Amino acid sequence: VSDVPVRAVGIDVGGTKLVGAAVAEDGTIVARARRVSPVGDPDALVEVIATLAEELGAGSPVGIGVAGIVDRGGVLVYAPNLDVVDVPLGPALHERLGRRPVVLNDASAAVVAESRLGAAAGARDVVLLTLGTGIGGGLVVDGSVVEGANGFAAELGHVIVEEGGRRCPCGNLGCLEAYASGTAIGLLAQERLAAGATTALADAETIDGKAVSAAAQAGDEVARQVLAEVGHWLGVGLAGLVNALDPEVVVIGGGAASHTAGSVLPAATASMSPRIIGAPPRRPPPIVLAQLGDDAGMLGAALVAVERDGP
Ligand SMILES: [Zn+2]
């Protein structure tokens, strides 16, 4: 147990686990706790978050980043991984904790953390993409996180990069998520294998982002081509985002990014740069790897709770 005073509590609510942190004034984590996520049970969800918040810092400002869409009233509108809809998380926790928590999307929380303490520290305009099962997105514009009129802003994985293209889990065709998520990396490799390509991946137990990355590092040409293709599409998507938002830096996080960054990020830079308006002489923003890993969501949620708590 630390003597450092707790300034806020941040909790990251994912589809399988909740992780929470007591955070000090300077952003350091003073204490941590975790629970298994209740799935399909809104009351249990409220209860487990409230218990975690009280355990980590009773009476402190509380920020909650959730894998789902959150509206301005703190209602968790849609959270497929938690199998709940329309949970009034903010109001229910306000009643339970005696103070109103900040509730926002987990990737939105993560981009705040990366822009204050991580890979984009000090930048006021930041685009974050997290490459995992899907693609999460977060935007900081002029220092503030962008949530949109209804909480649906920054769904950057569903920017369409190829009209009529690959089917995305959201139902659209051609979304960036269908080309550059961890899931997509595995699917692209499986398709090449099914089409008769000769690759060491034929012997892999499961062909996912991790396997493709390992094969590429071992010199497998097909795996390298897949990662180059993923980087290409990532760059196409990023070019549109950079042309819309003019960020200082683009941050790429998520499990699939940490495995594949060495191949994918250079390919993404090469594909993005010529599509940026004004370049050259304008310099495209750097594409960098996230630094805060799994701590980003809870840290960012705590930071937003402090910022909205007032001085
Ligand atoms: Zn989509």
Task: Write the SSE topology.
Layout: E1 8-13, E2 17-23, E3 29-36, H1 42-57, E4 62-66, E5 69-70, E6 76-79, E7 84-87, H2 89-97, E8 102-105, H3 106-116, E9 126-131, E10 135-141, E11 144-145, H4 177-180, H5 182-194, H6 209-217, H7 221-245, E12 249-253, H8 255-272, E13 287-289, H9 296-309
Helix pairs in contact: 1-2, 3-9, 5-6, 5-7, 6-7, 6-8, 7-8
Strand content: 15-25%
Termini separation: 27 Å
Structural class: alpha/beta
What's the helical proportion of residues? Answer: 25-40%
Mean pLDDT: 95
Number of strands: 13
Radius of gyration: 20 Å
Spatial strand sequence of the major β-sheet:
3-2-1-4-8
- The string of secondary-structure elements, in order, is EEEHEEEEHEHEEEHHHHEHEH
Taken from the alpha-carbon principal axes, the silhouette is globular
Give the low-pLDDT segments.
none
- Number of H/I helices: 9
Q: Which small-molecule species are bound to the chains here?
A: zinc ion
Please describe the structure with a list of short key phrases separated by commas or semicolons:
alpha/beta; 13 strands; 5-stranded mixed beta sheet; globular; binds zinc ion; 311 residues
